[in-house]
Structure formats: structure tokens, C-alpha cells
Amino acid sequence: MSKYLFTPEDDVVLLRETLEQVLYTLDDPDNPYYVEMKLQAARRLQEVNDRLSGRAEQGYDSLKQATCWADNYLHHKPWHSIGISTAVGVIVGFVLSHCTEQD
Fold first, then answer.
1. What is the pLDDT of residue 28?
2. What does the DSSP 8-state code read for residue 5?
3. Vertex 21: Cα angle to 46 and 13 (nearest 5)
4. Contact residues for 44 (Cβ-Cβ < 8 A; gap 6+)
5. Quick check: 77 pLDDT over 60?
6. For residue 46, which of 23, 4, 14, 24 has the smallest C-alpha distance?
7. What is the C-alpha separation between 81 and 85, in angstroms, rounded?
8. Distance between the two ends of the chain, CA-based, in angstroms?
9. Rounded to whole angstroms, what are the CA distances from 35 to 11, 24, 30, 32?
10. How far apart, in whole angstroms, are the C-alpha atoms of residue 68 and residue 74?
11. Rounded-to-integer distance, Cα 23 and Cα 34, Å
């Protein structure tokens, strides 16, 4: 199954169900079902860890790409960057000044 079909909530539910099954079998460690459940819990835990670490890496990669893009834009078009930040500052100042006048 693809690692992108699961949500974090699905992962938590899957782990909870598996751990509940393991806890119910703890009463009898000689039970062969206990060994099977322990292996299944370890396998599911590894699957969830793999999926969650993949999401973290994707987030890091997209943040790194956005940072590189912004850095390149600032270095290649410094005057555009100054103009944009000035325009944003004027707009924010205008909005804030009108908000304080109405109070």
C-alpha cells in the first residue's frame, strides 16, 4: 500500500488497535498469539515511523526550496525586493493607521 494513503490519524488508530491487542494477550505470555501480536506490533510501528519520517522530509524539502527561491530572487532582483517590501510596509501602515483612527 502506498505511504501517502494514510493520514496521521489513521496511523494513530492503527497503533492503538494493535497495542490494545498486545495488551489483551499479556495475561498469558506462553500464548503463541502473543508472539505473533508482538511481531505485528513491531512491524506496524516501523511502517508508521517510515510514513511519518517521509512526511517530515517532504516538509523540510519544500521549505528548503522556498528558502532557496527567495534567496535567489533577493540576489538577482534586489530593487524589486526593496520595492515590494516598501509597498507592503506602506499598505500595512495605511491599514494600521485607519484601524487606530476608528477606535
1. 64
2. S
3. 55
4. 14, 15, 18
5. yes
6. 14
7. 6
8. 57
9. 22, 13, 8, 5
10. 10
11. 9
